[in-house]
Amino acid sequence: MNKGFCLLAQNNSTTNYVRQAYALALSLHRYNKDQKISLITNDTVPKEWQQPFDKIIPIPWTDSAENSDWKIENRWKIYHASPYEQTIVLEADMFITHDITHWWKELEKYDLFFTSNVRTYRDEVVTSRYYRKTFDANDLPNLYSALHYFKKGDKAKEFYTLLEIIVNNWELFYTKYAKEQYQKWCSIDLCAAIASKILDNKKEITNPDSFITFAHMKPHTQGWKSIPKKWTSVIGKYYRNDGNLILGNYLQTRILHYVEDDFLTDEIIEKMKNGN
Amino acid sequence: MTKGVVLFAQNNHTIDYVKQAIFCAKKIKKHLKLPVAIATDSIQWLQDNYPFYKKYIDYIIELEWKECKQKRTFHDGTMSNRNLEWRNHERGTVYDITPFDETLVMDTDFLVGNDIFLNVFKTNDDFLIYRHIKDVNSERTDEYRWNKISDRSIDMYWATVFYFKKTEKTKLFFDLVNHIKENWNYYRLVYQIPDITYRNDFSFSIAIHIMNGHQRTSWPSILPGNLWFTTDVDILVKLDDEKYTFLLDKKDWRGHYTLGSVENANIHIMNKFSLDRAISEVLTDE
């Protein structure tokens, strides 16, 4: 079975997600030999940013996120666009810090896998429910779509087909399945959680004890008493020449979901490009 | 392999750490029956004021007296405090000055109340220390405050009491502690410590973090039992053999206290003034 990573990137008025996807692909190649990476985008990809990708694939059908700023409306299309039989999906604002090639062996056991237990930059399990109030209030699976996996087949297709319907009718589904602590915007995590609840497949698609997880850098999840607007303004980052990334004096040993574009300086990209 | 306990006692103008060390050694003799060494820059004070000290102290290690510019506020309950010298810079030298192959090091205001520490000499571990502490005052729920060296920084370890055996690794560790002490202003900025005061807990925590490659590992191992503590806004009011009775600071009621006690525990009593008063009573019989 062929396998690879899929990244979906759509630039908006504030963030160049294609640049982030390029940096993510560089970091993936740096620590993981012989991995295939596809970029799904309708944006122009500068020639020098195309090199780390095997394929650059246009977003299928029409752009469902044309009028949206957060641009998550196309996420369900990844299943259909992926050229791989087994796919790890990563959000563009992630950064690989180590070899994850052994993950394939673990993920092969699943048709679909979502991370459900994320970490802080200090590698502590996130206990804050600040961003997950609606999940708790409506007893929805605690899924994180920023890192997930699917194997093409009936089960994953059923899930993504339902996800498409939920994303396209999110207000209707929220009213039925997430009416407590109602969230006034469409999020792919919440839509995926509703899909899982409807299909009653939580136990089949996630494992809270799994080592397949990431460090989630939203400020409220870090276990801090004083919460800043941006994590990048309060802890130091050092991307060392040996390729180790240190945040707030902690060596990062998980995938980093850095969230804030300020993290990704040109200096970091240059260092990765040059293999430093 | 020789085994024993080292106590650091460096007086300031008000607090008699030597007196605390003698009482601490008395407890060690009772419960652990181990030789005790005192590292002090106040040998004359020890000999003149506590002529009975040899009952409890087996070795004297002379420390050079150095001027200390570092001060901190010492409370005596919530209503009284004094700003005094804090002479705590010698802890990292213990590797070189200890007369023992295997050493327990304790603050002089840490009092042993049982024999659980004898187990440390049965392990293969080269270094044992506490990661967490237990507050006698259950109303004070800010465990958060004691968990990291600052809000966004690294795990806190407590240099109040620790065990080490002489190995290359522990030698490196104490060298690193001394290096951090000598470059304290640099390290406190890197590790986001707002207070300029040098503190052994912080330098030990930083050294552990660095030794672990800037991540969590299973080193060092954790000392057995619990590190009970009361802060200096609590007041030790009665010391009855192995039972300590405190007035514990009542949360949000400044100047009000709750009565509480612990018995047969290993406990760190941070209110030096009330500890001194209690010890003075006990030592009158010597």
Could you name the key traits of this structure?
heterodimer, A: 276 residues, alpha/beta, Spore Coat Polysaccharide Biosynthesis Protein SpsA, Chain A, three-stranded mixed sheet, 10 helices, 12 strands, globular, B: 286 residues, seven-stranded mixed sheet, 8 helices
Topology:
The complex is a heterodimer of chains A (276) and B (286).
Chain A lengths: L2 E6 L8 H15 L5 E4 L6 H4 L4 E3 L20 H4 L4 E5 L3 E2 L7 H5 L4 E4 L17 H5 L6 E8 L2 H15 L1 H8 L10 H12 L2 H4 L8 E3 L20 E3 L5 E3 L2 E2 L3 E3 L8 H8 L3
Parallel strand pairs in A: 1-2, 1-4, 2-3, 8-12
Antiparallel strand pairs in A: 4-7, 5-12, 6-7, 9-10, 10-11
Helix pairs in contact in A: 6-8
Chain B lengths: L2 E7 L7 H15 L4 E5 L2 H7 L9 E4 L8 E5 L5 E5 L8 H4 L4 E5 L3 E2 L15 E4 L3 E2 L7 H5 L10 E8 L2 H15 L1 H7 L9 H12 L9 E2 L5 E3 L4 E6 L2 E7 L7 E7 L3 E3 L2 H12 L3
Parallel strand pairs in B: 1-2, 1-6, 2-3, 8-11, 9-12, 12-16
Antiparallel strand pairs in B: 4-5, 6-10, 7-16, 8-10, 13-14, 14-15
Helix pairs in contact in B: 5-7
Q: How many DSSP E strands of chain B?
A: 16
> What percentage of residues of chain B falls in helices of 4 or more residues?
25-40%
Strand residue percentage of chain A: 15-25%
In CATH's first tier, which class of chain A applies?
Alpha Beta
Spatially, the strands of the biggest sheet of chain B line up as 3-2-1-6-10-8-11
- The assigned structural class of chain B equals alpha/beta
CATH architectural grouping of chain A: Alpha-Beta Complex
Structural class of chain A: alpha/beta
Helix content of chain A: 25-40%
The CATH topology of chain A is: Spore Coat Polysaccharide Biosynthesis Protein SpsA, Chain A
Biggest interface = A-B, 15 and 13 residues
Mean pLDDT of chain B: 94
Largest sheet of chain A: 6 strands, mixed
Q: Could you give the count of β-strands of chain A?
A: 12
